[in-house]
Amino acid sequence: MPENIVLIGFMGCGKSTVGRELQQRLGYPLVDMDTEIEKLAGKPITRIFAEDGEPAFREMETALLREISATGGRHIVSTGGGVIGRPENRELLRGLGFVVWLHAPPAVILERTSRNRDRPLLHDDDPAAKIASLLGEREPLYRETSHLRIDTAGLDSTELATGILESARYHFCQRGQ
Ligand code: S3P
User: Fold this and answer.
1) Ligand 1 centre and the CA of 158: distance in Å?
2) Is the pTM value of this prediction over 0.85?
């Protein structure tokens, strides 16, 4: 059985930062899906969306998830916020191991994501409304896909990683690993 730790959640919830912390603590390789896709495409996500369109990006996400699933093993997998959109992706994510949903309130997400322009879905006249509508669609899917939800507000990445590691040990232990 694969023993990966998978981080899901909305943009700006700290998946990449917590992923790096877990990588350091566990020594498992980190697969940051957005970074991998940028490497494969040879361009940043903003350009993939602008030049090839969102559907092409979603295809790349699913292809990468299939590849990670085929390698099994022990990795920290940090995902993009929209990865839970496709049923196939949700199934692949659950099959990878322990899935953690990093959660933050909309105001925190707005504040964190307004610091840069690298998220094409939030290039909108009203990013607060866009965040609210995407959260409405996605929260049930994060819930359905995850084994654990963690509220990130007020916690730093060290504290978050400690909580995730304790829960992951329990999860894998319950499954006899
Ligand atoms: C997206 C989130 C981004 C990136 C892309 C689309 C989304 O990743 O995959 O811009 O649909 O929510 P982060 O969640 O790491 O910002």
Assistant:
1) 23
2) yes
